[in-house]
Request: fold
Amino acid sequence: MGKHSKYLDQSKLAALKGMRISKRAAKELSSCPPADLGCHTWTFTAALALFEGSDFDDEKIGELVRQHMTRDERPHNEVESAVASAKRVFTGELIAKKTPKAKRSNCLITSVARSGWNVAELQANSPCPPVGIQAEEFLEALFPGDPYVCCGFEVEYARTKKLSAFGDLPQHMQYVVPSAMTGPTGLTQSGKESPRCNGNTGQRMYLVTEFDFPVHDPRTTELFRSSGKSTTHDLCAAIIGHLRPFAPLSMVVHSGGKSLHAWWRCRGATDKQLEEFFRKAVTLGADPKTWTPSQFIRMPGGIRRKDDGTTAPQRVLYWDPTKMHR
Reply:
């Protein structure tokens, strides 16, 4: 069984009986996690299991994945991209560079959180008070030399152009890729031209860790009880403070939601060192998806647009101008 086996839905599995697919593919297809607990990753693993365990074409595989998702596609081409990537892995065209593997340790998180910073202490330890600084000014410091930068109002509407060409728009945007891009567009894994893809992302400049503890997750409730912390932001601050001796901390951004995004400078670090650091972060609850070079993360000083139509500022809480990529 795969990594999503704990979400196996026996009724969905029974409904697939008689379909010409392998037992493994049927079980993976019937094991989509809840919307906020890994559904995106599942779209790829389910598609790959179907390529390996059936003779269906791309269209049929995409149809089955959509039918068994626990939420709507986000963005609209999420399944199409997952199927294209899975096909390239299945055919041997692409050997996926996997995210460094690590298992989350709630015991370690509790130990770190119990004696670690809270948000107020994180802000108090900021080398430079991030007050009165606009989003575009943060970007100019993070990405010197006016390189191509990828930003977005929404995940599915990425724009890549010279940083100076954005003007004051970044303060109204939600997302940015934490490394400079190589040009206006590049090629996706499926060979399509796109402004935001790994094929258009340059050398890794910053590795961003997002510590996000879902409020309604029983594990988060237990962490609050055992660590003495009362908010998800305090949990995040404690972990970021714990990791600070292991890598240069450039910035911490409030997501406008439940999490904090920490920017760590990569200059001078080897791939092995970055992998070891990220593995340590994942053990402490970091979301593995931010390892992807072209992953959108929250714009420093930008605006979060929530599903209910309200907005929230994505405030910079910690700022060290000496830890920029220069």
Summary: The chain has a mean pLDDT of 89. The first strand starts at residue 148 and ends at 152. The chain has two domains: 5-90, 106-323.
